Amino acid sequence: MSATRVLVLNSGSSSVKYQLLDMRDSSRLAMGLVERIGEQSSRLKHTPQGGGSREWTGPIADHDAALKAVAEELAKDGLGLDSPELAAIGHRVVHGGKTFTEPTVIDEAVLAEIERLIPVAPLHNPANLTGIRTARALRPDLPQVAVFDTAFHTTMPESAARYAIDVETADAHRVRRYGFHGTSHAYVSRATAKLLGKAPEDVNVIVLHLGNGASASAVRAGRCVDTSMGLTPLEGLVMGTRSGDMDPAVIFHLMRVGKMSTDEIDTLLNKKSGLIGLCGDNDMREIRRRVDEGDEQAKLAFDIYIHRLKKYIGAYYAVLGQVDAIAFTAGVGENAAPVREAAVAGLEPLGLAVDDALNAVRSDEPRLISPADARVAVAVVPTDEELEIATQTYALVGEESN
Ligand code: ADP
Protein backbone atom coordinates (compact mmCIF):
# COMPACT_ATOMS: atom_id res chain seq x y z
CA MET A 1 0.00 0.00 0.00
CA SER A 2 1.39 3.41 -0.84
CA ALA A 3 1.89 5.88 1.96
CA THR A 4 0.12 9.12 1.10
CA ARG A 5 -0.66 10.67 4.46
CA VAL A 6 1.30 13.44 6.16
CA LEU A 7 0.84 14.52 9.77
CA VAL A 8 1.62 18.21 10.28
CA LEU A 9 2.65 19.22 13.79
CA ASN A 10 2.95 22.76 15.10
CA SER A 11 4.36 22.54 18.63
CA GLY A 12 4.22 25.63 20.82
CA SER A 13 5.46 26.00 24.38
CA SER A 14 2.14 24.86 25.85
CA SER A 15 0.21 23.67 22.82
CA VAL A 16 0.33 21.28 19.89
CA LYS A 17 -1.73 21.87 16.76
CA TYR A 18 -2.03 19.06 14.24
CA GLN A 19 -3.55 18.14 10.91
CA LEU A 20 -3.49 14.85 9.06
CA LEU A 21 -3.68 15.27 5.30
CA ASP A 22 -4.06 12.83 2.44
CA MET A 23 -1.73 14.09 -0.26
CA ARG A 24 -3.61 12.37 -3.09
CA ASP A 25 -6.21 15.13 -2.95
CA SER A 26 -4.89 17.40 -0.14
CA SER A 27 -7.94 16.49 1.96
CA ARG A 28 -7.91 16.87 5.76
CA LEU A 29 -8.51 13.51 7.42
CA ALA A 30 -8.39 15.04 10.89
CA MET A 31 -7.26 18.13 12.74
CA GLY A 32 -7.09 19.37 16.27
CA LEU A 33 -5.14 20.89 19.08
CA VAL A 34 -3.95 20.27 22.60
CA GLU A 35 -3.63 23.40 24.70
CA ARG A 36 -2.57 24.34 28.23
CA ILE A 37 -0.07 21.44 28.31
CA GLY A 38 1.42 21.13 31.80
CA GLU A 39 -1.68 22.51 33.53
CA GLN A 40 -4.48 20.68 35.33
CA SER A 41 -7.01 21.89 32.77
CA SER A 42 -5.29 20.87 29.54
CA ARG A 43 -7.72 20.57 26.66
CA LEU A 44 -7.70 18.36 23.58
CA LYS A 45 -10.01 19.09 20.68
CA HIS A 46 -10.06 16.61 17.83
CA THR A 47 -12.09 17.06 14.65
CA PRO A 48 -12.28 14.19 12.18
CA GLN A 49 -13.08 14.72 8.51
CA GLY A 50 -16.79 15.44 8.18
CA GLY A 51 -17.06 17.10 11.60
CA GLY A 52 -18.23 15.84 14.98
CA SER A 53 -15.49 17.22 17.22
CA ARG A 54 -14.46 15.39 20.37
CA GLU A 55 -13.23 17.43 23.35
CA TRP A 56 -11.44 16.32 26.43
CA THR A 57 -10.27 18.34 29.44
CA GLY A 58 -7.88 17.10 32.12
CA PRO A 59 -4.21 17.16 33.03
CA ILE A 60 -1.75 16.53 30.17
CA ALA A 61 1.68 16.74 31.76
CA ASP A 62 3.97 17.30 28.78
CA HIS A 63 4.39 17.13 25.01
CA ASP A 64 4.98 13.39 25.18
CA ALA A 65 1.60 12.85 26.86
CA ALA A 66 0.00 15.34 24.45
CA LEU A 67 1.23 13.53 21.37
CA LYS A 68 0.21 10.16 22.77
CA ALA A 69 -3.29 11.56 23.41
CA VAL A 70 -3.39 12.84 19.81
CA ALA A 71 -2.25 9.42 18.54
CA GLU A 72 -5.07 7.77 20.52
CA GLU A 73 -7.67 10.12 19.05
CA LEU A 74 -6.37 9.48 15.53
CA ALA A 75 -6.43 5.72 16.18
CA LYS A 76 -10.13 5.93 17.14
CA ASP A 77 -10.78 7.11 13.57
CA GLY A 78 -8.61 4.34 12.12
CA LEU A 79 -5.82 6.86 11.42
CA GLY A 80 -3.25 5.77 14.02
CA LEU A 81 0.38 6.82 13.80
CA ASP A 82 1.33 3.18 13.25
CA SER A 83 -0.59 3.12 9.96
CA PRO A 84 1.47 2.10 6.91
CA GLU A 85 -0.30 4.88 5.05
CA LEU A 86 1.51 7.55 7.07
CA ALA A 87 4.38 8.74 4.85
CA ALA A 88 5.95 11.37 7.09
CA ILE A 89 5.53 13.93 9.81
CA GLY A 90 6.09 17.58 8.87
CA HIS A 91 7.08 19.92 11.69
CA ARG A 92 6.72 23.68 11.69
CA VAL A 93 9.98 25.12 12.98
CA VAL A 94 10.01 28.85 13.58
CA HIS A 95 13.70 29.71 13.22
CA GLY A 96 16.06 28.16 10.70
CA GLY A 97 18.55 31.03 10.77
CA LYS A 98 20.70 31.39 7.64
CA THR A 99 21.36 27.64 7.65
CA PHE A 100 18.05 26.22 6.51
CA THR A 101 16.94 27.57 3.17
CA GLU A 102 14.69 24.60 2.37
CA PRO A 103 12.58 21.97 4.11
CA THR A 104 14.95 19.44 5.60
CA VAL A 105 14.71 15.78 6.61
CA ILE A 106 15.45 15.68 10.33
CA ASP A 107 18.47 13.82 11.68
CA GLU A 108 20.71 14.37 14.70
CA ALA A 109 22.77 17.05 12.92
CA VAL A 110 19.62 18.98 11.98
CA LEU A 111 18.37 18.78 15.57
CA ALA A 112 21.72 20.10 16.81
CA GLU A 113 21.54 23.05 14.42
CA ILE A 114 17.96 23.93 15.44
CA GLU A 115 19.20 23.81 19.01
CA ARG A 116 22.14 26.08 18.15
CA LEU A 117 19.61 28.65 16.92
CA ILE A 118 17.80 28.83 20.28
CA PRO A 119 19.50 32.13 21.26
CA VAL A 120 17.80 33.88 18.32
CA ALA A 121 14.42 32.16 18.93
CA PRO A 122 14.23 31.52 22.68
CA LEU A 123 10.44 31.37 22.75
CA HIS A 124 9.85 29.12 19.77
CA ASN A 125 12.67 26.74 18.86
CA PRO A 126 12.76 24.88 22.22
CA ALA A 127 9.06 24.04 21.90
CA ASN A 128 9.49 23.01 18.25
CA LEU A 129 12.40 20.76 19.27
CA THR A 130 10.37 19.12 22.01
CA GLY A 131 7.64 18.34 19.49
CA ILE A 132 10.14 16.83 17.06
CA ARG A 133 11.88 14.72 19.71
CA THR A 134 8.58 13.40 21.02
CA ALA A 135 7.35 12.49 17.53
CA ARG A 136 10.65 10.79 16.72
CA ALA A 137 10.46 8.72 19.89
CA LEU A 138 6.97 7.62 18.91
CA ARG A 139 7.87 6.69 15.31
CA PRO A 140 11.68 6.48 15.05
CA ASP A 141 11.45 4.77 11.64
CA LEU A 142 9.31 7.45 10.01
CA PRO A 143 10.84 10.31 7.98
CA GLN A 144 10.28 13.61 9.73
CA VAL A 145 10.77 16.94 8.02
CA ALA A 146 11.38 20.43 9.43
CA VAL A 147 9.70 23.24 7.49
CA PHE A 148 11.09 26.61 8.58
CA ASP A 149 9.19 29.88 8.94
CA THR A 150 12.35 31.71 7.91
CA ALA A 151 13.28 29.64 4.84
CA PHE A 152 11.32 31.60 2.21
CA HIS A 153 13.06 34.79 3.31
CA THR A 154 16.62 33.49 2.93
CA THR A 155 16.62 34.81 -0.66
CA MET A 156 16.59 38.41 0.62
CA PRO A 157 19.62 40.40 -0.57
CA GLU A 158 22.07 41.60 2.09
CA SER A 159 20.84 45.16 1.52
CA ALA A 160 17.46 44.11 2.94
CA ALA A 161 18.62 41.53 5.48
CA ARG A 162 21.38 43.53 7.21
CA TYR A 163 20.68 46.11 9.86
CA ALA A 164 22.89 49.19 9.67
CA ILE A 165 24.86 48.39 12.81
CA ASP A 166 28.50 47.45 13.35
CA VAL A 167 29.11 44.41 11.16
CA GLU A 168 31.31 42.52 13.63
CA THR A 169 28.86 42.88 16.49
CA ALA A 170 25.96 41.88 14.24
CA ASP A 171 27.76 38.79 12.96
CA ALA A 172 29.02 37.73 16.38
CA HIS A 173 25.46 37.57 17.63
CA ARG A 174 23.78 36.60 14.36
CA VAL A 175 21.78 39.83 14.34
CA ARG A 176 20.03 40.31 11.00
CA ARG A 177 16.57 40.30 9.42
CA TYR A 178 15.35 36.70 9.16
CA GLY A 179 11.61 37.25 8.68
CA PHE A 180 8.82 34.86 9.68
CA HIS A 181 5.47 33.51 8.38
CA GLY A 182 7.56 32.36 5.40
CA THR A 183 5.43 29.30 4.73
CA SER A 184 2.42 31.57 4.37
CA HIS A 185 4.20 34.17 2.23
CA ALA A 186 5.46 31.38 -0.07
CA TYR A 187 2.05 29.75 -0.38
CA VAL A 188 0.12 33.00 -0.86
CA SER A 189 2.54 34.53 -3.38
CA ARG A 190 2.31 31.38 -5.51
CA ALA A 191 -1.48 31.17 -5.14
CA THR A 192 -1.73 34.83 -6.19
CA ALA A 193 0.26 34.13 -9.35
CA LYS A 194 -2.09 31.23 -10.07
CA LEU A 195 -5.11 33.50 -9.55
CA LEU A 196 -3.64 35.85 -12.16
CA GLY A 197 -3.13 32.90 -14.52
CA LYS A 198 0.65 33.34 -14.43
CA ALA A 199 3.74 31.48 -13.24
CA PRO A 200 5.26 32.70 -9.95
CA GLU A 201 8.42 33.66 -11.89
CA ASP A 202 6.38 36.10 -13.95
CA VAL A 203 4.85 38.21 -11.19
CA ASN A 204 5.84 40.64 -8.43
CA VAL A 205 3.59 40.45 -5.38
CA ILE A 206 3.27 42.28 -2.08
CA VAL A 207 1.88 39.81 0.48
CA LEU A 208 0.17 41.18 3.59
CA HIS A 209 -0.20 38.41 6.17
CA LEU A 210 -2.51 40.02 8.74
CA GLY A 211 -3.36 37.66 11.59
CA ASN A 212 -2.77 38.17 15.28
CA GLY A 213 0.87 38.31 14.24
CA ALA A 214 1.28 40.32 11.02
CA SER A 215 3.95 40.69 8.39
CA ALA A 216 4.43 42.01 4.87
CA SER A 217 6.74 40.73 2.18
CA ALA A 218 7.92 41.87 -1.22
CA VAL A 219 8.18 38.93 -3.60
CA ARG A 220 9.92 39.41 -6.95
CA ALA A 221 9.47 36.61 -9.50
CA GLY A 222 8.71 34.06 -6.79
CA ARG A 223 11.59 35.03 -4.49
CA CYS A 224 11.32 37.09 -1.33
CA VAL A 225 13.34 40.31 -1.54
CA ASP A 226 12.18 41.98 1.69
CA THR A 227 9.98 41.32 4.68
CA SER A 228 8.80 43.32 7.67
CA MET A 229 9.63 40.99 10.57
CA GLY A 230 13.26 40.96 11.63
CA LEU A 231 15.55 39.18 14.06
CA THR A 232 12.35 38.26 15.87
CA PRO A 233 8.66 38.49 14.96
CA LEU A 234 8.38 41.84 16.78
CA GLU A 235 9.39 44.20 13.95
CA GLY A 236 7.19 45.69 11.27
CA LEU A 237 3.43 46.03 11.21
CA VAL A 238 1.17 46.86 14.14
CA MET A 239 -0.06 43.48 15.43
CA GLY A 240 -2.64 42.17 17.88
CA THR A 241 -0.34 42.52 20.89
CA ARG A 242 3.05 43.52 19.37
CA SER A 243 4.25 47.04 18.69
CA GLY A 244 6.00 46.45 15.37
CA ASP A 245 8.39 49.26 14.32
CA MET A 246 9.48 51.98 16.72
CA ASP A 247 12.63 53.89 17.58
CA PRO A 248 14.91 51.36 19.34
CA ALA A 249 15.85 54.13 21.77
CA VAL A 250 12.36 53.79 23.30
CA ILE A 251 13.83 50.75 25.05
CA PHE A 252 16.77 52.66 26.59
CA HIS A 253 14.37 55.39 27.63
CA LEU A 254 12.06 52.92 29.36
CA MET A 255 15.07 51.38 31.10
CA ARG A 256 16.70 54.63 32.21
CA VAL A 257 13.71 56.85 32.86
CA GLY A 258 10.91 54.31 33.32
CA LYS A 259 13.15 52.03 35.45
CA MET A 260 11.74 49.01 33.63
CA SER A 261 13.64 45.72 33.41
CA THR A 262 14.51 43.94 30.16
CA ASP A 263 11.84 41.32 30.84
CA GLU A 264 9.21 43.95 31.58
CA ILE A 265 9.95 45.74 28.32
CA ASP A 266 9.94 42.43 26.44
CA THR A 267 6.47 41.69 27.82
CA LEU A 268 5.30 45.24 27.13
CA LEU A 269 6.33 45.18 23.47
CA ASN A 270 5.34 41.59 22.69
CA LYS A 271 2.19 41.14 24.76
CA LYS A 272 0.80 44.52 25.83
CA SER A 273 1.33 46.64 22.75
CA GLY A 274 -0.11 46.75 19.24
CA LEU A 275 -3.88 46.90 19.06
CA ILE A 276 -4.42 45.62 22.59
CA GLY A 277 -2.06 48.26 24.00
CA LEU A 278 -3.69 51.01 21.99
CA CYS A 279 -7.33 50.24 22.71
CA GLY A 280 -7.65 47.19 24.97
CA ASP A 281 -8.84 44.84 22.21
CA ASN A 282 -6.79 42.80 19.75
CA ASP A 283 -9.63 41.23 17.78
CA MET A 284 -10.32 43.25 14.65
CA ARG A 285 -14.03 42.32 14.77
CA GLU A 286 -14.39 43.93 18.18
CA ILE A 287 -12.34 46.96 17.13
CA ARG A 288 -14.53 47.53 14.08
CA ARG A 289 -17.67 47.17 16.19
CA ARG A 290 -16.35 49.84 18.54
CA VAL A 291 -15.34 52.11 15.65
CA ASP A 292 -18.83 51.81 14.20
CA GLU A 293 -20.22 52.88 17.58
CA GLY A 294 -18.04 55.99 17.54
CA ASP A 295 -15.38 54.82 20.02
CA GLU A 296 -12.45 57.26 19.61
CA GLN A 297 -9.81 55.01 21.16
CA ALA A 298 -10.67 52.10 18.86
CA LYS A 299 -10.68 54.52 15.90
CA LEU A 300 -7.18 55.73 16.75
CA ALA A 301 -5.92 52.12 17.10
CA PHE A 302 -7.44 51.28 13.70
CA ASP A 303 -5.92 54.38 12.11
CA ILE A 304 -2.44 53.59 13.49
CA TYR A 305 -2.76 50.00 12.20
CA ILE A 306 -3.73 51.23 8.72
CA HIS A 307 -1.10 53.99 8.62
CA ARG A 308 1.66 51.41 9.23
CA LEU A 309 0.19 49.02 6.66
CA LYS A 310 0.12 51.78 4.05
CA LYS A 311 3.76 52.65 4.76
CA TYR A 312 4.77 49.07 4.01
CA ILE A 313 2.68 48.91 0.84
CA GLY A 314 4.45 52.08 -0.32
CA ALA A 315 7.89 50.84 0.73
CA TYR A 316 7.53 47.49 -1.00
CA TYR A 317 6.05 49.12 -4.08
CA ALA A 318 9.29 51.11 -4.28
CA VAL A 319 11.45 48.05 -3.53
CA LEU A 320 9.79 46.08 -6.34
CA GLY A 321 9.46 48.98 -8.79
CA GLN A 322 6.74 47.18 -10.66
CA VAL A 323 3.92 45.42 -8.79
CA ASP A 324 1.44 42.97 -10.31
CA ALA A 325 -0.62 42.23 -7.21
CA ILE A 326 -1.17 42.91 -3.54
CA ALA A 327 -2.51 39.91 -1.64
CA PHE A 328 -4.30 40.08 1.71
CA THR A 329 -4.24 36.94 3.83
CA ALA A 330 -4.69 35.45 7.38
CA GLY A 331 -7.51 36.18 9.87
CA VAL A 332 -7.71 39.95 9.38
CA GLY A 333 -6.59 40.03 5.74
CA GLU A 334 -9.09 37.38 4.67
CA ASN A 335 -12.06 38.64 6.67
CA ALA A 336 -11.83 42.35 7.43
CA ALA A 337 -13.11 44.22 4.36
CA PRO A 338 -12.74 47.63 6.13
CA VAL A 339 -9.02 46.98 6.67
CA ARG A 340 -8.49 46.14 2.99
CA GLU A 341 -10.49 49.18 1.89
CA ALA A 342 -8.65 51.56 4.21
CA ALA A 343 -5.20 50.16 3.40
CA VAL A 344 -5.64 50.84 -0.31
CA ALA A 345 -7.67 54.07 -0.05
CA GLY A 346 -5.93 57.01 -1.72
CA LEU A 347 -3.44 54.84 -3.59
CA GLU A 348 -5.19 55.19 -6.97
CA PRO A 349 -2.18 57.07 -8.40
CA LEU A 350 -0.20 53.85 -7.80
CA GLY A 351 -2.79 51.88 -9.78
CA LEU A 352 -4.34 50.45 -6.61
CA ALA A 353 -8.05 50.37 -5.90
CA VAL A 354 -10.68 48.17 -4.29
CA ASP A 355 -14.13 47.51 -5.77
CA ASP A 356 -16.60 47.88 -2.87
CA ALA A 357 -18.96 45.13 -4.04
CA LEU A 358 -16.13 42.64 -4.64
CA ASN A 359 -14.49 43.57 -1.33
CA ALA A 360 -17.73 42.83 0.53
CA VAL A 361 -17.98 39.26 -0.81
CA ARG A 362 -17.22 36.59 1.82
CA SER A 363 -15.58 33.46 0.50
CA ASP A 364 -12.93 30.86 1.30
CA GLU A 365 -11.63 31.01 -2.26
CA PRO A 366 -8.80 33.17 -3.64
CA ARG A 367 -10.41 36.15 -5.34
CA LEU A 368 -9.73 39.55 -6.90
CA ILE A 369 -11.26 42.61 -5.24
CA SER A 370 -9.85 45.28 -7.55
CA PRO A 371 -11.87 46.81 -10.41
CA ALA A 372 -11.52 44.95 -13.72
CA ASP A 373 -9.42 47.74 -15.30
CA ALA A 374 -7.03 48.15 -12.34
CA ARG A 375 -3.32 48.37 -13.16
CA VAL A 376 -2.40 46.38 -10.05
CA ALA A 377 -4.53 43.44 -8.89
CA VAL A 378 -5.71 43.48 -5.28
CA ALA A 379 -6.48 39.95 -4.09
CA VAL A 380 -7.74 38.08 -1.05
CA VAL A 381 -5.90 34.77 -0.89
CA PRO A 382 -6.65 32.48 2.08
CA THR A 383 -3.43 31.09 3.48
CA ASP A 384 -2.97 27.41 4.28
CA GLU A 385 0.27 26.87 6.18
CA GLU A 386 -0.56 23.25 7.08
CA LEU A 387 -1.15 22.31 3.44
CA GLU A 388 2.10 24.03 2.46
CA ILE A 389 4.04 22.18 5.20
CA ALA A 390 2.44 18.88 4.15
CA THR A 391 3.15 19.56 0.46
CA GLN A 392 6.80 20.41 1.11
CA THR A 393 7.19 17.41 3.42
CA TYR A 394 5.61 15.01 0.96
CA ALA A 395 7.65 16.37 -1.93
CA LEU A 396 10.78 15.55 0.05
CA VAL A 397 9.89 12.07 1.28
CA GLY A 398 6.76 10.96 -0.56
CA GLU A 399 8.49 9.38 -3.50
CA GLU A 400 10.96 7.38 -1.44
CA SER A 401 8.23 5.88 0.71
CA ASN A 402 6.04 4.85 -2.22
P1 ADP B 1 -2.86 33.83 14.19
O1 ADP B 1 -2.69 32.59 13.32
O2 ADP B 1 -1.79 34.85 14.02
O3 ADP B 1 -3.21 33.57 15.61
P2 ADP B 1 -5.18 34.36 12.52
O4 ADP B 1 -4.58 34.45 11.16
O5 ADP B 1 -6.06 33.21 12.83
O6 ADP B 1 -4.12 34.59 13.65
O7 ADP B 1 -6.01 35.72 12.76
C1 ADP B 1 -6.69 35.94 13.96
C2 ADP B 1 -7.27 37.34 13.93
O8 ADP B 1 -8.08 37.50 12.78
C3 ADP B 1 -8.20 37.64 15.09
O9 ADP B 1 -7.48 38.10 16.20
C4 ADP B 1 -9.08 38.73 14.51
O10 ADP B 1 -8.50 39.98 14.77
C5 ADP B 1 -9.07 38.49 13.03
N1 ADP B 1 -10.34 38.04 12.48
C6 ADP B 1 -10.82 36.78 12.41
N2 ADP B 1 -12.05 36.78 11.84
C7 ADP B 1 -12.34 38.06 11.54
C8 ADP B 1 -13.47 38.73 10.95
N3 ADP B 1 -14.54 38.06 10.54
N4 ADP B 1 -13.40 40.06 10.82
C9 ADP B 1 -12.32 40.75 11.24
N5 ADP B 1 -11.25 40.19 11.80
C10 ADP B 1 -11.26 38.87 11.95
Describe this structure in words.
The chain has 402 residues and is α/β, with parallel strands linked by helices. It has 2 domains: 144 residues, ATPase, nucleotide binding domain (Nucleotidyltransferase, domain 5); 189 residues, ATPase, nucleotide binding domain (Nucleotidyltransferase, domain 5, 2-Layer Sandwich). Helices cover 39% and strands 20% of the residues. It has 15 helices and 14 strands. Helix 10 packs across helix 11 and helix 11 packs across helix 13. The longest helix is centred in the last third of the chain and has 25 residues. The protein is globular. The chain binds adenosine-5'-diphosphate (ADP).
CATH class division of the largest domain? Alpha Beta
Q: Report the uncertain regions.
A: none
Number of domains: 2
| Small molecules held by this entry | adenosine-5'-diphosphate
Function: Catalyzes the formation of acetyl phosphate from acetate and ATP. Can also catalyze the reverse reaction.
Subunit structure: Homodimer.
Catalytic activity: acetate + ATP = acetyl phosphate + ADP
Keywords: ATP-binding, Cytoplasm, Kinase, Magnesium, Metal-binding, Nucleotide-binding, Transferase
